[in-house]
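Narrative of activities, Objective 1.

The group set out to show that a structural description can be obtained from nothing but a protein's sequence at a throughput compatible with the screening campaign. Below is one input-output pair from the validation batch, recorded exactly as produced.
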Amino acid sequence: MRVSHEFGPYINKDSKVLILGSIPSVKSREYGFYYMHKQNRFWKVMSDLFKDVFPITIEDKKTFLNKHKIALWDVIDTCDINGSSDSSIKNPKVNNIKKLIDGTDIKYIFVTGKKALELYNKYCYKDTLIKAIYLPSTSGANCTVSYEKLKEEYEILIKYLKN
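Output recorded for this entry:
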């Protein structure tokens, strides 16, 4: 089924890093914000990493992102996909990442998951010239990576946010 990214990037003037997924899951598209499936571990990892309160509402999540200078978006604007399965993605049309970050303080880009990394490197790197830093997917479907391992991998964000 052909799907479109149904909501824009989340970024503000103080954002220092950009975290890119592939394309929002079915639940995220339904709710209109990032990492909204209840089994996705993104917000839990982030709140634990920053020793902050777990954000419940979309407004809480936006406040969290602003506080920690994090922008969110996805590599893909539209694609053919079965449900939320990255492995089924075909015919991607990517977002203009360079246009998003031009004129911002974003100097570091992280990608969540192998598909996001593959597509960023294939379509976006040539425009941004910012090497993407890989982070494992926080999806509940990525059960090969433990919660503790996710937290350990995501700690790199702290280092880059301090720069």
